[in-house]
Design brief:
seven-stranded mixed sheet, alpha/beta, 11 helices
Amino acid sequence: MTTILTVFTHAGGAGKTSIAGNIAHEFAQRGQHVLLIDGDPQSNLTTNMGVQDAELHETLFDVLSGDAPLPAPRHVHGFDLIPAVIDLAEVEPSIPGRVGGILALRDALQKESGRWDTVIIDSPPSLGQLAAACALAADALVVPIMTRSKGLNALRGLNRVMPQYHRLRPDLHVAAYVPTMCKSNRKEDSELLGIVREDLPHVTSPIVERGAVWNGAAEKGLPVTVFAPVQKRQRKSGKSRVIWWSFCSATHLSEVNDDPARGLGGAPR
């Protein structure tokens, strides 16, 4: 059985793409067959994974504009990747004009059920048709929340569209909320993190504000845990494996060959 997760928020800069790519890599490192889908025409996930030469026919374009099956994925960093390019944005106006077009990605993935253990979709930072198609393809959503007022404002957008999504997918739900851009020494961050934990279910450990390791990994086209040596990751990566374990707990996904008591070489703090 394949689990499909869409990382979803209409707020830009919330760490959505970083979460999608690095969680996919962590799952793959634990023996899962993983498909990572870049559904964002900005294609930051694609370039972050080191793919610079993707073409339109390799993207979701034909799936969403017609009845095409999933394109053949690239294989990068131990998992499969369906990339994006900027021209993917041209598919958006055609989605509502097709009967069932908004569920085309869901249908294509269902036809491949069992091929992968986990599918992770990076949706565009919007509430448009392409973002809706990515959300409705999922079994559940993973929602990054910046620990800023902008993050709480983004939740209002999610709350506005979820009733619309439920008309087509009553079972769609949020599996995990992931606080991002968090600084423990910043009063606003601590206060908003407290609000999020009090008001929302399934909140993971927070991801600290991205530093040199996260940005350097993106520039080199590598997941964080490939880019940085273990010792450096322990200090600066935002404890991605601790986040991964917390993410699995929140989403009720079973772990593969991992000790939940350990983070990146040490106990979670």
